[in-house]
Predict the structure.
Amino acid sequence: MENISVNNLTDSTNSSLPRNIKVALAKEVLTQEKNIEIAKEKFAEIVKDLEQKKQKEVINATGTVLHTNLGRSPNNISFSGRYTNVEYDLKNFKRGIRNEYLSSSLSSFLGCEEVTFVNNNASSLYLSLRAMAKSYEFKNVIISRGEIIEIGGSYRLPEIIQETGLQMIEVGTTNKTNLNDYTKALKDFPNSIILKVHRSNYSISGFTEEVSIKELSEIKENYETVLIHDLGSGLVVDRKFLEINHIDIFNNETSVQDSLDDGSDLVMFSGDKLFGSVQSGIIAGKSKLIENIKNYSLFRTYRCSPLTLFELQETATSYINKDELNIPFWHLISQSYQSLGRRIKNIVSESSFEFDIQEGTSLIGGGTLPGVTMKSPVLLIKEVASSSLLNILLKNNIPIIPHFYKKRICIDLRSVFEDQDKIIKTCLNKL
């Protein structure tokens, strides 16, 4: 039987993958398949599949602004990748304190004593609980049954708490928890932390009751405990900015500043959600507690890279300077219905395919504001072989990710930047 060499199989398919990678794949195919034509088919399929999995820029036309599968919050990356004074004192010509400026400036903006940073918000909760248990000998965590969450990636709150060595004390019911439930638990289980958790990806409506941070703060002092608020979403933007830009979907969302003002000892939130920066976890609150977390033995294993700290600094500066529209997330959210409509009309102005422009609903996404939507005009493309059109969109030089609405491809510009409109227009004109 005729054989094919590794080099010939490697060269049988055009691909941008490094040659060494293709050679390795070719060798693997040839160990399993001796038929030349079948080997070529398998090799081409494997190469194509791997090439599509390379991380690259895409256009998010789904209308979900914080799309978890597409990287959540978009960013204007400012970091050059070169050396920085991340841990160097330029004044005294010696080793300095890590991210001292960022901590100081963000603490001032949020109105808290201290801030620290870790690689994601799950780390924020885990490290905080571990550090509190070690420093103050807490044994339990008291939490409402209505806040025992599971989010994407198999993150289950009870399992995180179990890993900290603390016992989880559930109070109330799924839909109703009152102040007496917490008070009784504090009496029955001394040395307990109070934990309140943001319901990141679901909501409870109807016959409901929950206890506010302000109410919990009033009872915590009597039991010498710590009140931790896992806020998750991280709303810090000035309410005046929301009013000026006619954004009302955050009216019922607790901000980080609200939680701190109402008495939380520690508030933790994601850097890549409503804060609008890179993936990270931000912990704000009492300096004594923050120092305990930073001095905890495991803290170093979860700390942020210089790149992350630099980008958090840039985002924080935009908030401090009242330049919120410089933050990509807030730029997208603030786009008016009318401006999005004009952009859609420009995209289809030279198109020959059949389409409709209808009122649609965009999502914030990313585990924030469950059930809350924004009105946006959307482009619905008539069923002209939707599967082939989807293939064209996904195979574009910069892939375009739409979503489906009643089996029709839907383009929602709420999550698309203006300079990407031309790319979408060019791609659609291929139809």
